[in-house]
Amino acid sequence: MASDYIQLTQTDEPAAGEALPPAGEPQVGEAGHGEGDTHTAVGTAADHGGEHGATFPPFDSSTFASQLVWLAITFGLFYYLMSKMVLPRIAQTLEQRHDRIASDLAEAERLKSETDEAIAAYEQSLAEARQRANEIAKSTRDRVQSSIDAERTEAEDALATRMQEAEARIAEVKAQAMSNVDEIATEAAAEIVSALGGGKATKAELSKTVADVRA
C-alpha cells in the first residue's frame, strides 16, 4: 500500500554524511536494493492499492460471512432492546391510555345516567307542580264561585225581602190613597149635585155612586 511505498522510498535515501553517487549510476541502500527493486516494490504497492480500491467493502464477497454474522448480532441486540425496553413501555402507555379512555367513558356514562335521572326527576316534579297548581286553581275557583253564589243568593233574598216590603208599602199607600180618592170623589160629587141644583143627596148614596163608577 501507500505506507509500504513510502517506507521503500525512504530506505533509498542516503544517510547523513554519506556521499551521493554520481549521476546516472544506480543508488544502492543498506539492503543492497537497486533501482529495479525499487520500481518492483512500487509497482506491487500500486497493484495492491488498485485491487482493494476497486470493490466497495460491503459488496466484497470475501466479507459476506462476517457481515451476516454482524447483521445477526445487531438484529438480535436490536430485537432484545425492543422486546425488553421499548415495546413494554409502548404497551404500558397504550394500556394506560386504554384504561384512561375506559375510565373517561365510564365517567361520561355515569354523568349521562345522572343527568337523565335529574331530568326525569325534574319533569316529574314539574308535572306534580302543574297538577298541584291546577288543583289549587280549581279549589280556589270553586271556593270563589261558592262565595259568589252565596253572596248572590243572600243579595237576591235581601232584594226579594225589600221587594215584598216595598210592594206591601205600595199596597198600603195605594189603599190609603184610594180611600182618600173615594172620599174626595164623594165630596166632589156632592158639591157638583148641589151646584147643579139637584137637591141634596146623602153621603151613602154618593159613595155608592162613586163606587159603581170606579168599578
Radius of gyration: 76 Å
Task: Assign an overall shape.
Answer: rod-shaped
Distance between the termini: 178 Å
Helices, by number, come to 4
Share of residues in strands: under 5%
In N-to-C order, the SSE pattern is: HHHH
Mean pLDDT: 75
Uncertain stretches: 1-20, 22-52
**Secondary structure category:** mainly alpha
Task: Give a short account of the largest sheet.
Answer: none
Kindly describe this structure.
The chain has 215 residues and is mainly α. Among the domains are: 47 residues, no CATH class; 46 residues, no CATH class. The protein has four helices and no strands. It is rod-shaped, with a radius of gyration of 76 Å. It starts with a helix and ends with a helix. 0% of the residues are buried. The N terminus is likely disordered.
Throw out a few tags for this protein.
215 residues, mainly alpha, 4 helices, 81% helix
Question: Can I get a quick summary?
Answer:
By secondary structure, the chain is mostly helical. It has helices spanning 2-11, 35-53, 64-196, 203-214. Among the domains are: 1-14 and 26-58, no CATH class; 169-214, no CATH class.
Write the layout of secondary structure elements.
Layout: H1 2-11, H2 35-53, H3 64-196, H4 203-214
Helix pairs in contact: 1-2, 3-4
